[in-house]
Amino acid sequence: MSLTKRYFKSDMKFLSNVVFTLAICATTLSACKTSDVLNTRETINQGYVVDQETLALAPVGSSREQVLLSLGTPSTTATFDNEVFYYISQKRTRPVAFMKPKIVDQSVLAVYFDKDGVVSQLAHYTLQDGKVFDMISRTTPTGGKEMTFLGQLLSGNGVGKSMAKSLFGGN
Questions:
Q1: Sign of CA dihedral 127, 130, 135, 137
Q2: Using only C-alpha atoms, what is the Rg of the chain?
Q3: What is the pLDDT of residues 20-55, one digit of tens each?
């Protein structure tokens, strides 16, 4: 009497599920290194990159006009007075073009002026010195709750309520 293993439909279904799962896992894990293999990593440099030669043209004791001629227009100035010029640069990277860039390096050159418009101090700040800030934000933060269009429709307030009345003939 010979013993042979018989495969049933349930065994074949289980085997096909295992093979499918292994194929998905292998594909997913191989995609983790795709950016290194295909070199899809993108580096974005933004802002004013200060080099030492240009910085030497605006030493402590130089005038505001000399700073503007040698370093150019600042990225931003102090909020309440023009006693500080800020030259800001950031380096961001992202593994793939559709992903959000991550800040890798940030440099802020601060040129402080005294009341006569003469450079009193030069300071260089990096990412380790403070908080990361978005220098090109185009949105104004507002108070309250932010809702999507669908959320407004389902909330029953404002537009959603009047739209529901017009669609369903309510009072």
A1: positive
A2: 30
A3: 888 887 777 665 555 555 667 788 888 888 888 888
Beta carbons within 8 Å of 83's beta carbon, 6+ residues apart: 112, 113, 114, 115
Please check whether residue 127 is in contact with residue 106, taking contact to mean a CB–CB distance below 8 angstroms: yes
DSSP secondary structure letter of residue 63: B
Instruction: Count other Cβ atoms within 10 Å, centred on residue 113.
Output: 20
Q: CA-to-CA distance for 48 and 52, rounded, in angstroms?
A: 13
- 130-148 pLDDT, tens digit each: 655 544 455 555 666 666 7
User: What contacts 4, CB < 8 A, 6 or more positions away?
Assistant: none
For tokens 């042979």, name the residue: 4
DSSP one-letter code for 127: G
User: What is the enclosing helix (H) or strand (E) of 54?
Assistant: helix 52-55
Quick: pLDDT tens for 99-131. Answer: 888 888 888 888 999 888 899 989 888 877 765
The span from the CA of 68 to the CA of 62, in Å, is 10
